[in-house]
Design a protein that fits this description.
Length: 121
């Protein structure tokens, strides 16, 4: 089995910073892509940032220049450093990983349980 465990959410004032972490564990051969999504109340889940195993990353326009995604391949862990937070960043943040469990297998998407980020004005 594979499990994604997130940590680092919380309450912060506008302009503040938070760092989210997500560690994947279990039967894992390789994780080609890891990312973060978020879902605000009444809105659809959206991609925030994603990063490949080689380190290439992309961001949704609204967080470009404020958020930084990184990963530690040895630890199967992805991070999201969030700076200059705004009230509109308030959401539940979900970790996502496309995981290969064997060399010959196909990648399967796994999700974390979600962590609440609340930014007060």
């Amino acid at each position: 089995q594979v499990q994604l465990v997130e940590s680092g959410g919380g309450l912060v004032q506008a302009g503040g910073s938070l760092r989210l972490s997500c560690a994947a564990s279990g039967s894992i051969f390789r994780i080609p892509v890891m990312g973060w999504y978020r879902q605000a109340p009444g809105k659809q889940r959206e991609l925030v940032a994603r990063i490949t195993i080689g380190g290439s990353s992309n961001y949704v326009d609204s967080v470009e220049g404020r958020f930084t995604i990184s990963r530690d391949n040895a630890k199967n862990t992805v991070y999201l450093q969030m700076n200059s937070l705004k009230p509109e960043d308030t959401a539940v943040y979900y970790c996502n990983a496309n995981i290969l469990r064997t060399y010959y297998g196909t990648a399967t998407a796994y999700w974390g349980q979600g962590t609440q980020v609340t930014v007060s004005s």
